[in-house]
Amino acid sequence: MLSQLMQAGLSPNVRSAPLTGGEPVEHWTEEAAVVPQHREHLRVDMVVREGEAVAGGVPVARLRDYPEIALVAPMPGRVAKVHLGPGRQLHEIVLFRDAGGDVRRHDAEAAGAGDGSALRALLQDSGLWRQFRARPFGRMPAPDAKPTAILVM
Questions:
Q1: How far apart are CA 132 and CA 37, in angstroms?
Q2: Is the pTM of this model over 0.90?
Q3: Within a 13 Å sphere around the CA of 64, how many CA atoms are in the beta-carbon half?
Q4: Are 57 and 117 in contact, with CB atoms under 8 Å apart?
Q5: Bridge-partner residues for 92, per DSSP?
Q6: Could you read off the pLDDT of 29-77 as tens digits, one per residue?
Q7: Contact 97, 76 (CB under 8 A)
């Protein structure tokens, strides 16, 4: 009886057929943007200009205080608009898709050799460093920070 009282949430009755094991389908958006996260103030130095064609995964801007941390193009395309605020604070970098564009492949083999500095450089150059959060305020860690623990959710 206690288990019946403790149940919460919805139990939807879904009548759709499960997906079959077919080939995955790629869907590309026509427009993408590089923007700061909520309450993130990024002062950047631009690497590209408006109208320039860029490959996916190529740096479009670097952080002004930490130039080793790159902001990368999420897809191959053409830089349509760069909107910077006072002090070169990033508001957005808009890209339009280029159908025949190239994609940069990062060398993950060198980073997997056990050298922490190579892994750190790969994460910073590929744009993934910004996804890390440091405690206590949830900000991006400094480029030379060494974690005592990593929590994955």
A1: 12
A2: no
A3: 11
A4: no
A5: 83
A6: 899 999 998 888 999 999 999 999 999 999 999 999 999 999 999 999 9
A7: yes
Sign, Cα dihedral of 26, 29, 33, 39 = negative
Cis-peptide into 136, omega within 30 deg: yes
Report how far apart, in Å, the C-alpha atoms of 123 and of each of 12, 137, 145, 147 are.
Answer: 40, 21, 13, 14
Report how many helices (DSSP H) and strands (DSSP E) the chain contains, helices first.
3, 7
* Whether pLDDT at 120 is above 80: yes
Q: Which residues pair with 99 in a beta bridge?
A: none
Q: Which residue has tokens 């993130």? A: 40
The length of the chain, given as a count of residues: 153
Q: Are 69 and 124 in contact (CB under 8 A)?
A: yes
Q: How far is Cα 86 from Cα 90, in angstroms, rounded to an integer?
A: 9
Three-state DSSP class for residue 42: coil
